[in-house]
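Deliverable D4.2, example record:
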Amino acid sequence: MHIVISSVGTYGHVYPHIAVGQTLAQRGHEVQFLTCEYFKEHVERAGLSFISVLSTAQYLAGVRDQEVWRNPWRGVRASWRHLSPSMQQGYTALAAHIRPGESILVGNSLALWVRLAQEKFGNPAATIHLSPIALLSAKAPPFGILPGLETLPSWAVRILLNMIERTVSDPIIAPDLNRLRASLDLPPVRSISRTWLHSPERVICAFPDWFAAPAPDWPANTVCTGFPKLPSGGPGELDPALLAFIEAGSPPIAFTPGSGVASSRLFFDRALGACKALGRRAILATPFRDQLPDLLPDFSFHTTYVPYDLLAPRVAAFVHAGGIGTIGLLLEAGTPQLFTPFTAEQTDNAMRAIALGVGLKLAPRAPLRHWTKALSALLNEPNIRRSCKELRQKFASGRLAREQIADWIEQLNANSRDDIRH
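Output generated by the structure prediction step:
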């Protein structure tokens, strides 16, 4: 098979798709991977053919835009301002590599050009959603979009979601999308987030059904798998200096606002202040050193990058924004989590994890005393540790998520061949 995978976003968006691509390549398929130039080294290290869609400068402009993270509603418009150029660039790059009647197309929630190419060329395609909020359900409402939405009857939720789509997401996305569609001789679309976004052939949820149970109003062709991860290798991949810091005392607390957040100085100020008050040690993970104080206290250690699956078993707790990839890795490690969400997606992810009993939530801009209190509660609550241990056992058996997703992609090809034969 010839498979082209498209993924845009931060590490948490791209890495799971690299894992799927690597699995497919190991099965003997030809896999090309279309993403930002920023991730080229990671794609090629996995043995995949890299196709560029956005420059590193464009990627960094997006993650350094404070408006993306400051307000959930304004963040939608700010995010689209950085994503919209990728739609034309992604479509052009994908169209140049499609083999009519042969290529299988795979795209994440943000890679809208995959749906365009699916319509234009007729190649089979799968949409992979990493987070449940990508499937806006009235029967199982998302957290974080509107306060109390999950307490309303489904008919009321449906009305509100339709209103949000008509007044927020469609007006932001549709003008650019439909302009590009017109240039491709494709008719205009609406209800982009709730309907058009999902491939009519296959929607793959890269999370287990015990994290988000399938809702009756999800697309009928939707399947749940698990949290796919890119394997890190052995313990030797931990930086020796970081490993020495970890082993020099009691288990530290790890902090990260996310790999794509470059404007969270307050987050790290709170982290250091809470650790100082509690007498705990801290690991600060961010590729953007300018978010940290010039001189770090001796109870802390900064790392630009660390494999979370290797770090998680070695820390007492993990404080992060609520990225779905991080949540999956920490659930597998059985590590207590404190969530500080910036976006609606992160809030939805966090609330689902909290419902499983594995952590607590805190506003990232909360006062230092609230941070200290929340961290103390997280570290000293036996029920949280018990839930973490119980959920960790769910990962001990069953097929790896990246293998399950690869199966569904291969089946998509088999189904398309059946359609041709019949």
